[in-house]
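hi!! sorry for the late reply, been swamped w classes. u asked for the two structures so here they r. pasted raw, havent cleaned anything up. first the sequence of the first protein and right below it the tokens
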Amino acid sequence: MNERLDRLASVMTPEQVRLQFQTAGVGSRAVAYLVDVTLLTLVNVTLFILASIVVSGSTDGFLNEPNGYAFAIVLLGLFLLNTGYFTLMEYFNGGQTLGKRLMGLRVIRENGQSVTFLAVLIRNLFRMIDNLPFAYLLGSLVSFFHPQDKRIGDLVAGTIVVREGKSRMSAGNKRAAKEWDRWKHEQVIVHLDQEAKDRMDHKDWLMLSAFLERLPLLSEEKKRQLGFQIAVHFYEKGIGDNRTVAETKSIPFLLAVYEQVKDDWRV
């Protein structure tokens, strides 16, 4: 599926590192949504059948002579299930539902930070409007013509859906690989337990990977200046266990951190 490659979003972090990533177009988002809806449909049908049997003893009786209160409760429960799935998955799973993870997509805030609960709740409640008049027609049209592929829910919530790939956040060219090898000669050991890894959010990952990918393009002074700022930021956040190493061997420190967290973030 071809996506437009010219739609990019840029964010300048407080550490003065510019993050740039490709936004997710209508095609990839539609496939991700189809995966999620297929899974939800299976769950919905199963729960509806179980509820029908419990209330009326059979599915036919529940549909032909529905109990008003019971029917309303079931519909409300299904609405909460479907809305809750997207909201809770995107909040607790780093901006990804199962469908988004399969397609290498992630929801983030406009400033590059991880989504908040309020943001994902708003964007998913607005699915009802994006879905008008049917089959996400309104949301798809808005997303298609918006310069950052945003649907109405994203516009209101201040979120954006970005594409991630294994090649985006890796040393994908000889210059970067050569530069990394140069710094790896300085032996640095960084111990990160799972608790420390969990402290890294999506903004931290983008900042780390963007800086390391751009090492060959930076002057020596800029490399050391930015490397020091980012390494100290990580240490103060609890990502790393040796401040002296973070301050004096910033780039090897960051490369060591990258090697330990890349499998958790690269899709």
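now the second protein. again sequence first, tokens right under
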Amino acid sequence: MLIDQEGGRVQRLGPPHWPVYPPGAAYGRLYDRDPAQGLAAARLGARLIAADLMELGINVDCLPLADVPVSGADSVIGDRAYGETPKKVAAIAAAVAEGLADGGVLPVLKHIPGHGRANADSHLKLPVVHTARETLEATDFAAFRPLKRLPLAMTAHVVFTAFDASRPATTSATMIHEVIRGFIGFDGCLMGDDVSMGALSGSIAERSRASLAAGCDLVLHCNGKLDEMAAVASEAPELSGEAGRRVEAALAVRKSPSGIDLPAARRDFAAMMAERLV
């Protein structure tokens, strides 16, 4: 069972039944004051999110982000990001992944190989990034390299013209094999971002077919429209080969949640985040 539960603007479960969690940038600000405290807060916040999810039987969360935003980019990432440098982003993302995993929830690294530089909201239209290869490798892609051993990742619906001028990462064999599997070194289970988003073109069946042909292991479809679900299913073969291996390897990483005193943990987390405001 998979959900998008980040905190901040992207929180599918919220009041009055579930707590409000801060956006990723809040951990980044705390990290700037005290790196150890920032990582501890990110880890604990994710552990609490995992507790909320596991109570409902949800055991996969599309978190953490390793996107590195730049000035002038679309605000779709914005304060969802942990910071503006690859090292800081990767460190906090790793802590979030640890917190989720400790709570029995599989993390999904996103949006590989990077959405922070996008000049449009990929929910609505296709972002095109013209940045040079050397810059991308030193910034956007660099944030993902320390996280390459995470079990699951989600692609970005973003065109990087330095590698493929016509296809976004989700449907680009060049981006998946040369950048995601190659330069970044990610060998986990790769899913495309939601195929119903405005960035992609063609029918839902064509989008699904293109993402699988490019090298995605799974197709992610999120709007719940039954006819579109049927179209996705019609293009999705039975899992086998490398895709099947990666899925099995990801599922094998799951573990039982560690013991936690939830009321005490929530008090500790609130105190940590309050310190950020002092």
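hope this helps!! also noticed smth abt the second:
The chain has a mean pLDDT of 96.
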